[in-house]
Amino acid sequence: MKEIVFYFQVHQPFRLRRYSLFDIGNHGRYFDDAENARILRRIAERCYLPMNALIGRLIQRHEGEFRCAYSISGAALEQFELWTPEVLESFRELAATGCVEFLCETSMHSLSGLFDEQEFVTQVEEQRERITRLFGAEPVTFRNTELVIDERVAALVEELGFRVLLGEGADHLLGTRSPHPVYRPRGTRELRLLLRDYKLSDDIAFRFSNRTWHEYPLTADRFARWAAAAQGPGRCIGLFMDYETFGEHQWADTGIFQFMEHLPREILAHPQLSFATPADFAFDPFEGGELAIPRPTSWADAERDLSAWQGNAMQKAASEAFWSLREKVLRAAESDPELLSAWRRLSTSDHFYYMCTKYFSDGDVHKYFSPYPTPHDAFLCFMNVLDDLSRRAEAVKASSVSSPIAPSLIAPRKAR
Amino acid sequence: MKVLMLGWEFPPHKSGGLGTACEGLTRGLAEHSVEVLMVVPRLVGGEQVASGRMLEAARALSAAAAAESSAAEREIAVPVVANTEIRGLEIVGVASPLRPYLDAGTELRGGYGPDLFREVERYAQAAGSIAAAERFDVIHAHDWMTLDAGLRARERSGKPLVWHVHASEHDRNRDAPDARIAAIEQRGVEQADRVVCVSHYTATKLREHYDAAPERLRVVHNATQPARDRRVRAWRARRPFAEPLALFMGRVTSQKGPDVFLDAAARLVRAGTPIKFALAGDGDLWSGCVERAAELGLARHMYFPGFLQGDAVTRMHALADLFVMPSVSEPFGIAPLEAMSLGTPVLLTRQSGVSELVDSVIKFDAGDSAGLAQAMQALAEDPFLRSWLGARGREEAQRLRWGGAGAKVADLYRELTA
Predict the structure, then answer these.
(1) Is A350 found in the same domain as A247?
(2) Which pTM was predicted?
(3) Do strands A100-102 and A68-72 pair parallel, antiparallel, or not at all (unpaired)?
(4) Which residues of B touch A388 (CB under 8 A)?
(5) Are residues A229 and A320 in the same domain?
(6) Contact between residue B291 and residue B349 where contact means Cβ atoms under 8 Å apart
(7) ipTM of the modeled complex
(8) What is the pLDDT of residues A186-213, one digit of tens each?
(9) Residue A95 is part of which domain span?
(10) Mutation test of the interface with chain B: which of A359, A380, A388, choosing the one with the most B Cβ atoms within 10 A?
(11) Which of A43, A406, B342, B397 is the most buried (most CB within 10 A)?
């Protein structure tokens, strides 16, 4: 018996405008509202709205047998509210079916878990409240930005009260072991770790429309046969992917929607297969036992490590500059809260991803997603914004140096 | 007196000092009753010509090919706006998609070379037919790109040729000069009636590398235009920086020494000196410099505003408290004069033409980043020293007007046509 666990990542960063040296000190309009609105509307039309409608039909058609999970970053949710409220409404309709689980993550899709524990806790709590408020159920499953996990993050996630964590079924973690059993990350007691089956996930997310792939074109019945053929221990086949796979990364004319339309029927035709969401595993036994995660693992690129965000000197310098600004911004936010919200938006991992210089096979992917002509432009624009933000925070500090700091604003919220 | 002037770039669309110098020289010549018919590879629009007309010589070329008639050029003449600042200047465009400067290792040796040489040849053809159609007394060609055009024009018209060297291949690519370009420059030194050099530094180079005959060499230093003070003051008033800003502005190529600027900046940052840096410009070392800045811990201290032109150049100058020209080898170096005329203290290398012309600057040797760092630190920490040096530099730059350069060149024309 195996369960197909679909988890779709929905995320949109607040992209920056081309903020130049001449803008510093002159204005704090860092984000390109027009461009962000344009992209949100385009993706809503190509992906979110048609795909949500399709998922809704599949849930109805299969009378609860088809289930799936979403994690929607706070950055995306905020932008839905701003530019495409109909998308948010359609997700709420899916939530009402009871067949869809909404996961928790960091509100701004940040790598705070690696850099700043207090900020991580703050962003997780903010997101937990928002998901609960919007979709009517408190999340029990956590997925960290870009599936980045290590033992420290896992321990934090458990401490915050989550029962299930998602991760990448990376070879360097598993060796010869299967990604399908439930594992317990070393250092946790009750946290279920579900892993991504990268082979089957990427068959859909990356290879589906690749005409040079020897399995092209992929059909739903063949994919279902592959899933049904999965042997060995464990019952979770994690199909984790970006939601934008459907209609945006793979355009409608590739047949990706038709594939998805037929997939549940083909899966359910195999008696040993069914659908589940991560929360369904919340009380499962740890069939895979303990899993050591000595260094951070992600779902990105061939390396499955942090090199997409931390691989070069520009990324490291930008990270260091960014995270070292937090205390100053928190203090200044007392009189100018906008500074903190701008800083949080800058924590989004995409800003660092755009600075990636790995121009090998993965470079193409980075380039495709970047609004900048080069990684260097991304770095320089980010640093200019940071420079202005830092100056504004400094100015606030200077003008209110004698006023006491409200403790509620700087203390992290209490973990559950 | 009317000169057929063969240039490769003209403001505001330029990528180096050549265009600035050409424009300045035409202004200077106008003060001495010399009419200029300016031919440039291509007119992009926005070139500030006052009186005169523009010819699209690309169309002239194809028209000439079709009709074998140089009269076609006249018919496609485009009148330019009145309200002229430069009297007696006409500009002719020759369509050319290429940039005048060859960054070491990129355009030239990477396979784009043949295209550039083809453009140079096309430009020479256009100059030939323009020379046949126009009336003028003397020909003045700038740098290697237009030398063959100058020789062609001399052939067609029988008028004397002045070749103006703003930079030689041995400045641009010290380590690996391009043999084809060096051959062209050799030809220029041998065949032009007179060779104008922008500095004694350049004249020496031409004698060293091309065995140029001293009696045919003339040194005419570049000059500068009066600064537009009001806008600069407005921009300065709005500058967001409390700490001083040191500016490098130029092509980001090894000739210009950006690595020395980075290294000196890193020394100051390590020493905790409150100062910011801006490295403005584009070039083959640009992305490497951005990465290097990150590696050296300069990410929060150095800006890279990229290639600037038009108002942005002046605006950048307005933000700067120090101007640094760390060139390894600079035939002239016009940017420091622009900075000086705005009252910005300047630091420049002795290996430059401009350094033989000015005194109120700080001079250091190419490659000496420790020396540069020391001087920048002294200036960064002492606002009085900055304003004193800036004021002295400004006075000095004000004396270096294009009219003076124009007078020397006009005399040379008269000497050749007498």
Answers:
(1) no
(2) 0.87
(3) parallel
(4) 240
(5) no
(6) no
(7) 0.89
(8) 999 999 999 999 999 999 999 999 999 9
(9) 2-291
(10) A380
(11) B397
